[in-house]
Amino acid sequence: MAISSVADQAPGKAVTIYIAPRSQRPVLAALTDLSAAGLLSPFHWIESGPDPSADPAQQDPLTLAVNQGQVSALRFSRAVNRHAVEVVRLIVVVPVGHEARDALSALAELHFQGLGIPGQARRECVRVLVPWSDAPIPGELGHQGWHNVMLSPEVSADPAFTVSGWWLTPEAIPGCAAVGLAVQGGITGTVSAAPEDDQRPSTSDYVKITRTFVRVADARAVEDALRSQVTSIAAHYPQPIRSDTGVPVAGFPDPGERVVQAAADWERRHGKHLRRPPARLADASPPRSMGAWKLLKMFFAFLLKALAGAPGDWLRKQIAGIKAGIAGSVSAAVFGPDSPVRVVVGGVDASGQPASWQELSRLAAQASASIPEEFPRAPQPAARDFGGLWQDLISGSRALLDGSGCEELRLTAYEGYVPERDLVAPSGEDEGSLRLPQAIDPLPADTVLHAWDELETQRVRRVLQKAAAENGPRAATAQEYLRRIESWHTRNSRRFVPLIGRAIARHWEAARADIRDTQARLDELRAQDFGQEIEHEQRSLAKILRLLLLVLGIAVGVPLVLTVLGRMSWFALGITVGGALLIWLLASVWIFAVRQREVFRLIFLTESRSAQLPELEANLRMAIEDLSAIGEAYAQFNRWAAIITEFLADPLGEQQATAPTHDSRGVPPEPLQHVTVEVDQRHAADVAAELRRQVFTVGWLSEAWDAFEAAVADDLTPEQRSAYNAGHLNLLNEPGHAGSALANWEQGVLHAGVRSSAGLDKWRTCLGLLADSTGPRLDLAVITSDGERRAVAAYREDLSTPASRPVISQVLSPAAHATGRALTSLANHWFTESTRGLSQTMVLAASTDPIPSGEFVFPQATDSGNSFRLDEPVYDRADRSAATGRTAAAAHADFAAADSGGPDDAPPAIPQPPFGPLEY
């Protein structure tokens, strides 16, 4: 079973390649197990025969690449040829005291030392001697031009413990040797340094004995718990601290009232962007008199109608003539039987159910496009930018919760903060949303209302009110739902984002009311403006005028008869008739003027109202265009409200960060101690509280929003992503319809949650504070393998404090003991460590001073000669061939003619990852 990973498995700047004979396969298996346990960085392994230079395949030898226990085969050139590589470590594994006696020869080592590497990289060549026993089996110990290191053959977990040779427990040798090789190769977890890095190679055959210890203090469980305590943001938000003074910002005395004021300031600032000011109607005409000529024309027109017996038609003709061109085109284009404005004004669809705001917005846009062009337009454009509304919505929400300022909403920095998130953007069922589980036609089952969606809430209430009034089988359920909605709606009356939704909804309803009012005014111009009394008055006046006309006829007829009979002169007839006509006309006109005063008033009123027609038409167009624009603004608001609510529910993105499981059932070799870090829970809570106080400064929510916005592009289409990255797409100006960049982002947030690095950034700040001597002190402890509880600081000092201690003496001759060479040297105390979060990886390589090869129990190999010396290696292949007494051409010929194959030249079998606990 693998121990939890603490190693950095990404390709690094160093490549470590182990070169070993076939007998060291148990060590390879142990290294692979440790890699599978996540305790080692990637490494490579080459298994070599006795004469690799004679094998053409060994000019670019096959390597086994091991990464997290997974083994793959690739060539040496592919392993080292990377631009990022700065150092190539060649670690030759030299078994001594091994019955196989297959250690690589000096020429074989020289072959691998001369393999090509990238020009920018440097070589680090180390020979690591692994004493498998203290038997005096001859071998080649030290070579010039290499770092010669012998692993101290011990099974020990602490430098101060007494030790014995590991060959007493042979099964532990591969694991202990693997730990020593990992340290020399710089692959021990997060520690990428090696003891021999940047050291000059030996110019002698002296060998130093090295004790190696690795300690991994795994604090991930503690870190996860502490991070959760610091960065978890629930409904109660952290109190922000002023970064300049360290003084906490107090909460508002009445947070709910301050939220209401901020929402009112938002509406005051942006109301004019939602509704344009209407055109002012022309003032009613002042009292005026009718001219004599017009009076006479009206009199004779009325007289003709009176003689025809239809005096009421005259009045209707007078008013209808004025109204004829007033509202006909308006009613046909806007209020006709097929006009979408009828649905917009009535608010009900064809089925008689309350129409949704989305449908009304669509119909308003359709009506806006169908308005005749001759209708006057408002000076302000119909299309407008709502970006400022959402910028203030975002800034105001953040400022209320983190104590920062928002001048646009008259929120002063450090003025105060709102501790409860739900007062800004309620989230969660029963607060941020309300679910109606049962279906009530036309509402489906599990209808969900959101706190900010005022228009949809109003529609659902109208549907439920209708269902409750019908006393059907769902009436009681509808009544219950209405009570729940009313209670929920009341709670949201002092919450910022829902209040913004209500403000937009008020402007929506105001625009609809203006359309209804304009319709009423236009209908009034077309309506009959007189009743039965005026009709009766017209008939009475007609009788009087007919009577006067009869009198005139008599007054003219009698003198005419007398003149015909010769009793009057024609001159007298003319005077009499003229006088009669004048008297009749004056009397009739006077009576007409007196009796028709109310009619004249109605005519003047109609003419006065007709003068308001251009303003009415302009206001009608404006109201319909505004309704369409408010519908678009509300669609955008719905998207932003959902995004803001999701963000404020998890501002640091910590709910999406899943903590890995920590499995540490494996048992690594004794020199590698993998321990779990513990902490007192009360102490951890105190430290978390102090860290929380220091990292949540005024404006922290703005920083979190910036980190949240950094992931916007992940939810966009390729075209939108390209425009967004180029700065050509501003989300604040995006429409709210499906498929827009804003809608895609909202859907991504609702589906995947808040994806942000803000939580990680905050935790990194906490780690910096914990590492600082002036920051909070976190007392961590470990439980060692023997059950002892120790502070991490003391656990570290076991390795970090230099001390001179003995190595295994069985590998040294009596002469070495006499000279005191069997002790590690303070000058050769190499300690390094690496931290990842609160976890630490500590490595110690404590070495003796270099010891002559003759002072070991292993005699010099008989085929090497005591006087054998190697000059510095020559890395050029042709020069190396010359140095070995062979020409470059001959070497090339040998390479071309060599025959690969044979059981001894076969590459090592790929070790399989472990399937059980690591135990050595």
Write a brief structural summary.
With 920 residues, the chain is of the alpha/beta class. Helix content is 44%, strand content 11%. Strand 3 and strand 4 (70-75) form a beta hairpin.
What overall form do the CA principal axes indicate?
Answer: rod-shaped
Average pLDDT reading: 84
Strand content: 5-15%
**Which parts are unreliable, with pLDDT below 50 for 5 consecutive residues or more?**
1-11, 865-907, 909-920
The number of E-state strands comes to 15
Ends apart, CA distance between termini: 14 Å
Whole-number radius of gyration?
49 Å
Helix-strand category: alpha/beta
Separate helix tally: 28
Major sheet description? 13 strands, mixed
Helix content: 40-55%
Could you characterize what this model shows?
This protein is α/β, with parallel strands linked by helices and 920 residues long. It contains 28 helices and 15 strands. Helix 1 links the parallel strand 1 and strand 2.
